[in-house]
User: Fold histidine kinase from Parasphingorhabdus flavimaris.
Amino acid sequence: MSNVPDLTAVILGLILAAWLGVAAWAIWTGLAMKKKADATLRQSGRLGRLLETSPALPLLVRSDGKLEASQRLMHWLGFDHLPAHISELHENDRGMGRQDLEDLMQDVNLAQKTGSSFVRAIKVAGSDKALLVRGGLADQKISPNGSALLWVFDATDSEGQIEKLRDENEAARAAFDALSALIEAAPVPMWHRSPDLSLTLVNSAYVAAVDAEDGARVIAGGIELVETVDGFTPADAARRAKDRGEPLERIVATTIGGERRMTQVVDVPLGKSGIAGYAIDIQELEDARREQRRFGESQRDMLDKISAGVVQFDADKSMKFCNLPFQRIFSMRQQWIAERPEFPRVLDRMREMNRIPEVRDFPEWREERTGWFTSPNGSEENWLLADGTHLRVLANPTPDGGLLVIFEDRTEQVQLASARDTLLRVRTATFDNLFESLAVFAADGKLNIWNHQFAKNWGLEEEYLGQHPRVDSLMKKMALQLKQPARISEVREMVRSATTDREQRGGRINFADGRRYEFAAIPLPDGNALFTMLDISDSYRIEQALRERNEALVEADSIKGSFLSNMSYEFRTPLTSIGGFAELLDQGIAGPLTDQGHEYVRAILQSVKRLGTQIDNVLDLSQSEAGALPIAKDKVNLNKLIEDITGHFSEDANAKKIEVEMQLDATLGSAMADKKRLSQAISQIVDNAIKYTGENGRVLIHGSGDVKNAVIHISDDGPGMTAGQQSKAFDSFARSRDQKAGDKAGGLGLPLARQLILAHGGDLDLTSEPGQGTLVTLRLPRQ
Assistant:
């Protein structure tokens, strides 16, 4: 029995020991758990504080829509407390927007059902705060009932930056699109090369320039716009621009659209982006430059040919160009001009050459002229030089800041103006002192100029004429002076014809007081009309007297001609009887005659013959002057005719020991003439030459001619004739020689010869000098 208590005690001890062990283990475990719990609490606190301070806050949405979140998140949404349900996260002026909340609830619902995640940006109502929500299905350890865990980020700053970047991106994209469109629409070829210098982009102008189908084929084929010249390829140009780090410009000939054009090609380095390039067609610019050069050269050639001096200065006041007249006017050498002197130096040189006007203060004068460069308007001056030269100076600033100066020599114009003024004064004085009435009417009929005689003849007052009346009102006053006032319309019509129709007309008009005037209306070169009126009253009276005297002279001449004709016939009858009886006596009909008797009879016959010839000459002259002399034209050999005439006068010439020489050219030929009358005319001249040539003299007969005329010259070395004697040489009743001729009276020789030559359509001229002899020239037409 005693063993039983011991066993009990042992068992109890064991139980107590076990309990003590368990208690110790429990205490140790509790202490460990407490320690672990304290660490967990501390870690939870830190995690809580981390969550509270983290940029992202959790929001747990349970399957029934209830929410679990921190107060800080509610403050982000503008709530003072946590709403119970997700649908309550929207109010009028706080929380989420209605549309954002609806979209978020759809995302949450989809995440709870499918476990998918989402990201959504929302706006907080009533503020500019932006939130970014990232959500998905919550871990089963966090919420095993299909809850959705949302992480909410404060994206206000980042969203602003994102929005800014988005705007910048949109702007950049728009700018890029605009730039791309601009490059594509550019009329000049443009391209881009990658860093390895291969083509990556070309525009439409490039494609059209190389006659390709599209840009892709250009890039694929590496079709270059610019040709390789002397081994220098377009890629080499791009590489050189890349190496230099600056644009490379060059002008090359390029084929654009099948036509050779001069282009300016520019390669622009873009750093790591590659090389850009463009080509500008400058063919028209080059053509314009060449045309400008040609125009400049032609303009300079033209300026060298004008009389005005022209000089041009650049903006720096250096001489750019001057023409030859400028160099001549101011005596400037080409070597000095080649130095491109400045404007003040040019003025100094002009002063040295004494080619500027006299001035008191030359530096001030030079400074004023230098101001021409900045003058808003052109300047004009007149320079009077020391040698009397008048220069008109025109200075005009050019748009490029330079100056163009023109020097026009107006010396001659000034002299002409002075001469014109003098001429006007002389004209006025001449007009006023003329006996002829003068008036000038303008094209509109106004009286412009008149002289005192015009006012006096028409009885017009100077004060009235000074009003320059029109022709209509003036003629009304002038009509009062006429014998027939209605005839003033003729004067008015003539003035109108001279100004309007440019016709010259004239006439005569009688004044009431008996004066007679001859007037005319003459068109002037300036469109005006000159009305002139001459007093012919005295001339008219003299004319009437002369007319009456002429009628008397004509009647007396007619009586003279009839008398000569009748007397000639009356003389011929007894003269014939005398000649006949003298011939009978010479033949011895009345008995034999002594030698002296025969001599007397021969003298009577010679005188009868000469007197008969004179009577025939008188008749021929009378008929010739009356135009009734018959002329029968036949072909006459002039050489033979002259030889016959010379032989006829050989005895007379030999008696006075006169040498008669003939020089008959083969061109003298023949003419259609009346042989008798022509022989009579030449004989009269030869007879006169022998008659008035002294002993041992010389008579020359020269004959020549052309196709139209035969010319015969008959000259002698006689005493010659004075001017007065020559004027009377063809007068039938005047002496034909000077006083040295003695009692040799001038007969009908020259007058008759001239009338006979004129009757043949020819002409007879006489040339003579006292002591030099006389030359008579006959011109006879062939036909």
User: Anything to note?
Assistant: The chain is about 45% helix and 20% strand. Residues 38 and 511 are 159 Å apart (CA to CA).
